[in-house]
């Protein structure tokens, strides 16, 4: 019994669905998040109302799921945001769903679903389209994919307010980085809008999004995964421009991550910070310092930690910032020691998350992809020893999740619709992009071929991809042209290695301790173009220009 809502919530699992089948009742699935203000508001206004709670307890089997802890449930039942209020048949198929419901709306929906269930039963339920259509449309990879995405960004670019689309306005770090190399003016104006409107100038860190076209209506929760990605994006803008106006937002965000979101006990980053009281954000600096800190979800999740590690190491590689390096190393050590077992990335460093039927960690594509990217970044910037773990993660993912020519989000097992295969585009793209880096770092072409097959598996629908999937076009471009690869025959940290990291192409791959080169030299490669050897940073910069021209 949850005293704050009066609803007798069950945990997600087989017991709840067995109860629904035995009692011939629908399941009311509530998807929430600790950082979600509207979720708490619905608890206070709707689920705490005695008659609604009694109605739910008497006629439904109520199940509550924290979306950060059960990502496969989130991805199958999300109604477009949180909270999501989803009514299910006992087999997990969907009767109907909505987002936030106030008391009046909830009463109407409860009555409607009860009537639907009494008259049609499970016959009224359906399986969502992404889980019915197993295979995405495949196609050929061509330069038109990159051109098409750039055109889509241009068409949806907001000339007045910056960013893409009208509302809501999200920071879209992958789109920022894609545009940075292909339309710098559009990209930098959007970076400026994100920095000016979403960065918390007092405490650091980026708010999640704004509800309105002019970047007003700020949703002030701060999530580790989006902040980690934005550190990387702003670091890359600093690399290409050399301007402190792009370095400083990354630096302020790192300060936020390494203080407010640092979990000392776990020696890693916590998951999120809730928005806090709305009035506190309008206070002056003195009064705000005295106000209560918004609550932090201390959960340590592998995927979001990996994004933060990658962001901090990217920033360190351009700035030599010791704080960024030190905290990235500590978090990476925790993830490798506590959450990585035989190539499987456990979702979280806590109880209360999804486990497989054997009680072991579930192999989830999003976690595998994110940690692979963090490990390859670490191999490029800090120590090549992380390549062993990177290879283990890649091989385990290929072994367990590769199906036909793309990857499933996890094993096709579990209750509800978790036994239905799902091929998430964003995680497939992230994994393919990381495989391109791994191929360059290891010299193993098979990883590049897996990346090619994966990207081809979705190419038939590429014209319909929105700006949120700009990374798909980035990965296709890197695959077709070949990324700029700089091989350096020195240990990480040498002057030549540091110069290679700072050459202004954020899509490059730097390979330290490279084989086949004279000690103390470096060379640049792109596709079939290979430069002469360089012995100094100045020579290396010149060699890179010859390869790119």
Automatic annotation (TrEMBL):
Residue intervals of the Thioredoxin domain: 1-115
Gene3D superfamilies assigned to the protein according to its UniProt record, in alphabetical order: 1.50.10.20, Glutaredoxin
Database matches in InterPro entries: 6-hairpin_glycosidase_sf, Ssp411, Ssp411-like_TRX, Thioredoxin-like_sf, Thioredoxin_domain
Listed GO biological process terms: carbohydrate metabolic process
Chain segments carrying region Disordered: 121-143
Pfam families according to UniProt: Thioredox_DsbH (PF03190)
Domain of life: Archaea
Name of the molecule in the record: Thioredoxin domain protein
């Amino acid at each position: 019994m949850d005293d704050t809502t009066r609803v007798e919530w069950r945990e997600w699992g087989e017991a709840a669905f067995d109860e629904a089948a035995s009692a011939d009742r629908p399941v009311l699935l509530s998807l929430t998040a600790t950082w979600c203000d509207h979720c708490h508001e619905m608890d206070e206004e709707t689920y705490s109302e005695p008659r609604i709670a009694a109605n739910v307890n008497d006629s439904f089997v109520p199940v509550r799921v924290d979306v950060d802890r059960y990502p496969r449930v989130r991805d199958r039942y999300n109604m477009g945001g949180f909270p999501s209020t989803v009514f299910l048949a006992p087999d997990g198929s969907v009767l109907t769903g909505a987002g936030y419901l106030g008391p009046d709306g909830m009463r109407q929906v409860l009555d409607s679903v009860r009537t639907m269930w009494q008259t049609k039963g499970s016959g009224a339920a359906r399986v969502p389209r992404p889980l019915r259509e197993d295979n995405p449309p495949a196609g050929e990879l061509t330069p038109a994919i990159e051109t098409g995405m750039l055109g889509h960004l241009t068409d949806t670019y907001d000339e007045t307010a910056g960013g893409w689309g009208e509302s809501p306005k999200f920071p879209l770090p992958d789109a920022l980085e894609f545009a940075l190399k292909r339309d710098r003016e559009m990209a930098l104006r959007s970076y400026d809008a994100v920095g000016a409107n979403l960065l918390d100038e007092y405490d650091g860190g980026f708010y999640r999004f704004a509800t309105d076209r002019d970047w007003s209506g700020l949703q002030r929760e701060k999530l580790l995964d989006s902040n980690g990605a934005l550190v990387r994006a702003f670091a890359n803008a600093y690399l290409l421009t050399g301007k402190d106006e792009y370095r400083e937002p990354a630096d302020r965000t790192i300060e936020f991550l390494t203080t407010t979101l640092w979990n000392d006990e776990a020696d890693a980053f916590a998951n999120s910070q809730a928005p806090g009281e709305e009035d506190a954000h309008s206070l002056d600096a003195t009064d705000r310092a005295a106000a209560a800190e918004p609550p932090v979800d201390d959960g340590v999740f592998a995927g979001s930690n990996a994004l933060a590690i990658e962001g901090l190491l990217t920033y360190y590689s351009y700035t030599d910032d010791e704080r960024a390096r030190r905290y990235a190393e500590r978090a990476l050590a925790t993830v490798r020691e506590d959450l990585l077992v035989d190539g499987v990335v456990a979702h979280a460093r806590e109880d209360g998350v999804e486990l497989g039927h054997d009680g072991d960690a579930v192999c989830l594509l999003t976690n595998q992809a994110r940690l692979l990217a963090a490990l390859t970044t670490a191999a490029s910037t800090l120590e090549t020893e992380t390549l062993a773990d990177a290879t283990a993660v890649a091989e385990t993912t290929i072994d367990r999740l590769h199906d036909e020519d793309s990857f499933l989000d996890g094993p096709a097992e579990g209750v509800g619709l978790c036994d239905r295969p799902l091929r998430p585009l964003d995680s497939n793209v992230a994994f393919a992009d990381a495989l391109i880096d791994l191929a360059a770092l290891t010299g193993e072409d098979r990883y590049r071929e897996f990346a090619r097959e994966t990207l081809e598996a979705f190419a038939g629908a590429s014209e319909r991809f929105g700006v949120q999937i700009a990374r798909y076009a980035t990965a296709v471009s890197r695959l077709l042209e070949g990324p700029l690869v700089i091989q350096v025959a020195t240990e990480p940290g040498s002057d030549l290695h540091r110069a290679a990291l700072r050459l202004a192409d954020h899509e490059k791959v730097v390979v330290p301790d490279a084989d086949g080169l004279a000690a103390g030299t470096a060379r640049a490669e792109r596709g079939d173009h290979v430069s002469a050897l360089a012995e100094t940073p100045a020579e290396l910069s010149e060699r890179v220009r010859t390869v790119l021209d």
